[in-house]
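pinning this so it doesn't scroll away 📌
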Amino acid sequence: MAGRTVVRGIVLRAVDTKESDRILTVLTASMGKIAVVAKGARSRRSRVAAATQLLAYSELTLSESHGWQILSEAGTLELFQGLRQDVVLLSLGSYFAELTDAVTGEGLEAGEILSHLLNALYALSNLHLDPRLVKPVFEWKLMALTGFAPLAEGCAVCAREQPEAPMLDVVHGVLHCRSCRQGGGLDMPLTPSALEALRYVLWGNPKRLYAFSLEEEDLRLFHNAAEAYTAAQLERGFRTLDFYKRLCSDLLAAGESEHNL
């Protein structure tokens, strides 16, 4: 890149370096994931400090120097304040950022992925949707956008479109009836409603991803299968997910203690 370039992007990772600088991992639509040096971002007089926060979506003016993209100017477009005021939601948003970082590459167009991430954060921060729904929807759709979609058309063994007692093999990414189980994978149970929701997320209108609801048990299985599938397909865990789950467990335990008083 020669001269100055103006892009819009969201900070997936921010690492403090030297006395007041930050190195950012930014996801953009046209350039994919890029590394950006924000000099003096942590100083009190910095005019770009807000735009260098994790999950800040901004318009960035970049200039190239010795192979690095240097942040010259920045104007924030969305800071998702609803997340920053809730440590649990912020931890979930951080997981979304870490997961997105893991499945995107430099120099690859990422418009759909960027929109998907922004919509999920907006759903949590501004629409106040149930995190237990937003999280699996985000995971399932991100897997699909990055080439990891499960084969959900029907049973991989008997070809039934509506599998009997549906199970998802999260290792091999295939659906099957409980009675058709062949072994060798890791199966997660789904209800018919949870399977319908999965298909809706994979194949439905991306602008209406969150326009559905599930009963408690359906939501639990939909949620658990998404998390297991993501971990199995990427063959790794996520520090931010562990932190989010620990916070949720602590809140649940605190709520039960209050109830027992």
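📌 and the second one:
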Amino acid sequence: MEHFSNEFCQMELYDQFVVLTINENESLTLDKASVIRDKLRSHYKSKDFLMISYRKYKHNISNKIYKQGQLPNMKGLAVVSSDDRERDKAVIEQSLYGKTFVFFSCIEEAKSWAEGYF
């Protein structure tokens, strides 16, 4: 596993999935998503992978990311949070994402899902 962090996020890059944690009170914009995409491209190249969005901290996500910021080899997205408000936000996000989209309340369940996906 490879670790990556910067001023707005942390990533744990595994063989077939990435765990992305956005820092508290950040706004995930298209520009910030481009930094994340660049790191994902360099790590996964054209290999299929899944993303686990670990919503450990409150933050905002631009809906434009779902419309303009998708990598073709990202085959699914899991949102992890124990907060009901995050689940409500995820339901809205799910309608913007055209691939596999799941919700978990526990990070270990999401990792288990990702490990068995391919």
